[in-house]
Amino acid sequence: MERIPILKMGDCLLVTIQMDMHDRIALALQDDLTTRVSTTGARGVLIDISALEVVDSFIGRMLSNIASMTRLLDARTVVVGMRPAVAITLVELGLSLPEVQTALNVETGMELITGAAFGGAGSNGRHSD
Amino acid sequence: MAHTVAPQTTEIVSRNERQVLDAWVQHQMTNGTLRADLIDQDELREDSRRFLSLFLRALGDGGSDIEAPEWRDARELLASLSSSRGRRGFSPSETASFVFSLKQPLFRVLQQEFPSDPQRLAEEAWNLSLVIDKLGLYTTEVFQSGREQVISRQQQEMLDLSTPVVELWQGILAIPLIGTLDSARTQVVMESLLERIVTTGSRLAIIDITGVPTVDTLVAQHLLKTVAAARLMGAECIISGIRPQIAQTIVHLGVDLSDVTTKSSLADAFAVALDRTNRTVAPKRNGN
Questions:
Q1: Which residues lie below 8 Å from residue B181, measured CB to CB, with a gap of 6+?
Q2: Is it true that domain A6-114 has CATH number 3.30.750.24?
Q3: Interface contact flag, A125 B231, Cβ < 8 Å
Q4: Angle of helix A57-72 relative to helix A23-40, nearest 10 degrees?
């Protein structure tokens, strides 16, 4: 079965989704990711979905589930590079994913994870400092 | 069909086409329907001649139903006359009376032909009158549909023009909204804002609603959707330009804007945006 590779960079895990997400791939990713976070003790998970063109409510739920699960394992998840069409679709589906942190690109996403980023963007619109 | 112009009548008129045309042009020039400032005599005569000949041909071939294919040439001529005259400043009723004024000369000719048969005369005059009425109304219809096209095109243009996304500073976008927000417009606003966020890589977007006259639950929902979509892409939205009345309405409607940063003026919002990107505006020191 196809699996999405998970790369480890320091204490951060990197996931790039470059294929159409089927429900089974999504579930496998959820499984793999939580296992890897707990075995490596990673502090951050960065999911790049800039190549993802189609989403449904299941994928939306999965993203927010992953964020909640990794938070329980003490790692923050940042979703980066969402396309405008995908964002509109998720909002129209009623999934505004409040528990997921977002960033424009991998660079700002990494800043967010390493704590160097400014407080505002993507963090629920609230100031953290 | 009961109200069909008899072939004989068509034949009578065709025989007297020249006389009808002269009388018609004369009639148009004397009874005040001619706009001498907008059209000259030669052109009027040429228009009248072309229409009369097409009218008679169609009447002979196709009968009284002006929707029939035989009437296509006559209809096309009327349509082009109606639109060209409309552009020149004729009112639709002036264009229609161009057609209606054909009645009098036609009836004159019939009167000459049936001096001793008033019943026949009345019958044929009535039938001709019906056809001419339809043609006159047709010019008005064409005029109206032309106007409608203009209106819908302008609506589209307004939609495109009314949603500019401007870059206030590197990484700070602003979108000043003016006019009522409906679903279609919000869609355009959302799409153009998100596209610009991608192309400029901006982290902050200020949505200024100073020009939005009223905010109801639907508008508020649209705004919240835009904010949520921008957040999903990693940009934060600040809503500015909330007037006191609108603040009151929002609270009375029970709309929850607590997750969104709101400021009363665009300047305040810009200051917040600069602050979040770790920038500051400082007064220039003397001597520099």
A1: B189, B212, B219, B222, B223
A2: yes
A3: yes
A4: 10
A12 φ, ψ (degrees, to nearest 5): -130, 140
How many pairs of residues across A and B have Cβ atoms under 8 Å apart? 85
Q: How far is B196 from chain A (nearest CA, A)?
A: 10
Which pTM was predicted? 0.64
Contact B234 A104 (CB under 8 A): yes
> For residues B13, B16, B21 and B24, what is the CA-based torsion angle, rounded to 10 degrees?
-70
Inter-chain contact A125–B227, Cβ cutoff 8 Å? yes
Torsion sign, CA atoms A118, A119, A121, A127: negative
Average pLDDT over chain B reads: 86
Q: A91 to chain B: which residues are within 8 Å by CB?
A: 225, 228-229, 232
Do the Cβ atoms of B167 and B195 come closer than 8 Å?
no
CB contact under 8 A, B228 and A96: yes
Cβ distance of B233 and A90 shorter than 8 Å: no
Site from A82, A89, A110 to mutate, B interface, most B CB atoms within 10 angstroms: A82
Give the least confident one: A80-84, B8-12, B227-231. Answer: B8-12
CA distance B67 to B70: 8
The first and second tokens of residue A27, run together, are 């579930």
What ipTM is given for this predicted complex? 0.79
For chain B, which domains are there?
A: 7-154 (1.10.490), 166-276 (3.30.750.24)
Has residue B36 got a pLDDT over 80? no
Residue of B232, B261, B277 lying closest to A82 (CB–CB)? B232
What phi and psi, each to the nearest 5 degrees, are found at residue B186? -60, -40
| CA distance, residue A10 to nearest chain B CA (Å) | 23
CA distance B39 to B168: 53
Domain boundaries, chain A: 6-114
Of B190, B225, B235, the CB nearest to A121: B235
What sign for the dihedral angle of Cα B211, B166, A51, A122?
Answer: negative
Residue with tokens 């609506």: B155
Q: B117-152: per-residue pLDDT in tens?
A: 888 888 888 888 888 898 889 989 988 888 898 899
